[in-house]
Amino acid sequence: MNILTLEFFQRALIGGALIAVTAPLMGLFLVLRRLAMIGDTLAHVSIAGVALGFLLNVYPVAVGLLFAIAASFAIEVLRRAYRTYAELSIAIIMSAGIALASILFTLGKGFNLNVSSYLFGSIYTLNSTDLAVIAGVTVIVLTMVLVHKKRAVPAHI
Predict the structure, then answer these.
(1) Domain residues for 57?
(2) What pLDDT was estimated at residue 155?
(3) What Rg do the C-alpha atoms of the chain give, in angstroms?
(4) Residue-wise pLDDT tens digits, 80-122
(5) pLDDT given at position 97
(6) Which among 28, 16, 7 has a CA at the least distance from the CA of 121?
(7) Is 22 part of a structural domain of the chain?
(8) Residue 98 and residue 43 share a domain
(9) Gap between the Cα atoms of 75 and 94, Å rounded
(10) Is the pTM of this model over 0.85?
């Protein structure tokens, strides 16, 4: 049996390829803005969204994505308000995300799920909805990069 014919493996390849396009584009801008640790922060905050999604019986990945977007805006607001301590905004939001996730998971003790699958994930478990979300994020990132790109100024010798 050829592994490339298996649906789960095809979804994993497509998801991996989309992430391979998106991650370096976002990473470049984040490192240049001194936000290298924002990925860790948004991951912790999104887990709180996943927990809330389970409590509300809503698609948990979508709620986690909304939490991550809200957290990124909150980080930027704090960075602008306290320019001297801009990097601390990441630590503040991460701590709040971990605390909220702990509270929400405690409230939902009856969750009949494996929380570690959402904490660490597996590319082999992607379903069609997950691929649609990844594709949507990829399109948004590519569009924003193309819309906001600056023209290269030729160097004069």
Answers:
(1) 35-113
(2) 63
(3) 18
(4) 888 877 778 888 899 999 999 889 888 877 665 666 666 677 7
(5) 92
(6) 16
(7) yes
(8) yes
(9) 10
(10) no
Mapped onto helix, strand or coil, the DSSP state of residue 118 is helix
Contact 38, 94 (CB under 8 A): no
Structure tokens at 129: 């909805």
Q: Is residue 58 part of a domain?
A: yes
Position with higher pLDDT, 152 vs 124? 124
Q: Is the pLDDT of residue 146 over 80?
A: yes
Q: Which residue type sits at 146?
A: L
Does some domain include residue 157? Answer: no
Exposure string for 141-157, b = 16+ CB within 10 A, e = fewer: beeeeeeeeeeeeeeee
Distance between CA atoms of residues 71 and 66, nearest Å: 9
Give phi and psi for 72, each to the nearest 5: -65, -40
Contact call for residues 57 and 47 (beta carbons, < 8 A): no
79 with 89: CB under 8 angstroms?
yes
CB 125 within 8 A of CB 117: yes
